[in-house]
Amino acid sequence: MLTGLVLLLNHLLAIKISSGTNALNVSIILGIMALPTVVSVSEDALQATGRELREGSYALGATRAETILKTVIPASLSGILAAVILGVMRAIGETMVVWMASGNAARIPSPWYNMLEPVRTLTATIAGDMGEADQVTGSARFHVLFAMALCLLAFSFIMNLASEMIVRRSRKKLGK
What we know:
Blueprint (H helix, E strand, L loop, with lengths): L1 H13 L8 H25 L3 H9 L4 H12 L1 H17 L2 H6 L20 H8 L10 H35 L2
């Protein structure tokens, strides 16, 4: 046990951070930025379940915790899911914070999953390079930027379809 702790401590001390602007910082910042959206929409969904539903659960002998876990949350699951998807899509679409805090390095970190290296996201690449692309002649760079935008649009569309399927499944399960 102690040797494992010593090995872990040695690995942590061996980590070198090349810059303060990296993918880990951006992840933390975006998580904090998206949190108010998720909390606000989830709170609205939980309050929209109605007082009658809670009172019915209490009348059947459920405790407060059972009412929340077995009645209120399942009834508002579609709203909570919508809140999470809205928060994720807000984080994906964020450009300027990511641009500033990620290091804006147009290279793949080595190894690719290293969160402590500067990175560049698709949105930051599109925003940064669109002004420099040769729009008049329709250069390859210009078309690549639009292909990146198409990838973001396709991902957003797929996320919306997935959320719609989950909402339909939860409605069918609840019998609405």
